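Record type: ASSEMBLY
Status: queued
Input:
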Amino acid sequence: MKFEDKIDLYSDEGKLLAEKVPIEALHPYRNPYMKEIYLTLKRTAIVDLGKLQGMLRDGRTGWSTTVGQDEIKMPWYGLDLDLVEDSEEIAEELKKMLQLKEGDDTNIISLEGGSLLVVQLPLEVLRLSADYSPAFTQVSVALGQIIAKKYGLDNPLDRPYRFGMLKNCLHGRYPQYVGPNPGNPVAPLMKVPSILEGMGTGYKSFMINHVVALGNNRTLHAVALATIFEQGAQFEMGNAIGWYERYQLLGSAFQGFNANNLVLDMVKENARGTAYDVVLTLMERALADGVIEEPPRKYPFVQPSGYKLYQLKDYAMWNAYGVAALLAAVIVNSGAMRAAQNTSAVLGSWNDFIAFEGGGLPDPDAGRVMGTGLGFGFYTHGLYGGAGPGAFTMDHVIVRHTSGFLTPCIVAGMCLDAGSQIFRPNVTSGLYYTLAEELPIFQNPLEKLAEAAESIKGEI
Amino acid sequence: MARPRRARKPKYKPQVYPGADKVSDRRRKAADPTKKLAKFRSIPDDNIVLLLGHRFKGESYVSVHPPLDELVEKYDPIKNIVEPTPGARAGDRIRYIQFADSIFYPPMAPWLRPRLYMSRLRGCDVMVYSGRQLLEQRERDIEASSKWLLETEVYDPARDAIRGITVHGHSLRLDEDGLMFDARRRYKLNKETGEVEYIKNMHAEVLDNPIPVGRPLTEREARGHDCTYRWDVAAYKSRTEILTVIARYSRGRITGGFNPELTEIINNSR
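Status: finished
Output:
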């Protein structure tokens, strides 16, 4: 066992799920549940046959933003194909083409009367490929061949524009552009590797609203999923090696997975309180649990006015308490307003309270949360314009600068929104609600995570 | 109407802010919800509505979603724990008030306002940007908060102003009447009554009747309520304690961000 720390995991209703779990059992690459989530993300692609059918019919493809998906329309090149009606056959063919051998783990789920296919590639493909591109490339090319064969597009010399249209509907402008169109009918769950923001940011390339939808608007469940995605990325981009490993594990356990019921306790205690009250609860808890301690009664530890410079016992643990309190403060403030827009207020302005309350103790994530939060506030308010908090992806240049402790808070804010946003999850992420229903892996993440941690406790 | 909520009594004794001088006290008072802000003036509710300019006097509140009691939502235990504000419960629109604070003896400053708001108001959205501070809440909550903010000691009619647009002016010299510059001329000093009167609302739309918001603080009073250090209010040297804390804060951030295992160095850095 690398680290001594053990924690208890609680559900969002305060039920004890697992006791004395070593924090290494919550390591993204060791916890079986987290591993399964990452593999699911990599191997799953969504095929929107309904949309593809419409695009082919209208000759509508090659757009460059998600909002305007009708910049180019060439109905005279259109193809009237009944893809949705034939979806069963298409799915069957697709499975045959994608599987490595008969009866392997290739999986295709047909949804919404066949207009939507959830395609899962064999794990072996993902294990051997350099990245998760096959979730897009293989599915897209296979689909192209199936459509060509099935609808008599088998002679390339006969009206070749039809092939051009089919290629464009499936692959967008790629490779003229670095990836397919935004909102492409064939898409992996994450951003395609060629348009990632940086090395290792794949797992956090989700839109905040998608995570909210995957968590089915249940605050702590969505927060847990966001933390799993974020920490997967942190470990992948090298931000959790050596010095940082314990820091990341503790932070994610206390903020994301409701360790020791800390977040829930803080929220309950301040259910009728303000964001500042959470700071007081944090100081109380940290002193009681021995995370910080009273300073010696002499200068400079006690200043002439009687102001105390509290002493840290363990910085990583203090940070974990800090980020948990941060989430609690966001929940208390957003929960009172039942709106998401004030997450940035807490993220950008609340951290000062900790510094001055604790006598200059570092605030959550050593100030990165505050810095990022201020920028996030600018771009979610009229000051510089921008989007609603839910429309940001977790790897967006505005929100990606913390060690994975900021976006779970935004997710919490969006879960508590009662309908004040233009970019609401049910507007932007309807598909992900369906996915959450159909893929049981995304349901009850806190319980599954605790179960998985319990199962590997012995090994650690 | 506007009453900041009573702060709960924690077992832990809050220290809020370092320093023993007058300015530190002002800052501590702003951030400490147990301290009551002195009431300086009375402004009728209707006048607050007119000043904000979000709705007409007597008009009912517009809602963005059904009242929470009628809203069918997905199950989430957290939603049942945190108590929504009256405005949120009714599904009100979200509206704002924005203050610009002069740099000449201000009773409040943009960087201090978030601490004032977040320690006393529930469900608030704050955002600061060069000389201005935005406060957003549900409509009936923002009206209550605005009343409280305009009636108490944190507002000086001459040196703080409500500005929704054209916020510029916080760092310019005060005019001949001692008022902060406003390119939109939203307010003026009524020399007969000695009170500042708003002739336009926050969005610089002309009002039917001028709205008095009380007399400006005198130079002496303003110095007494100043929340910034300057040579004739509180000497820079009196900031030693604050500088110690800020230095510790910065070093802790740098060290902790560099290597979270260096607890000892964070503790000893001052």
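Annotation: DSSP finds nine helices and seven strands in chain B.
Annotation: Residues 22-59+92-232 of chain B form a domain with the Lambda Exonuclease; Chain A fold (CATH 3.90.320.20).
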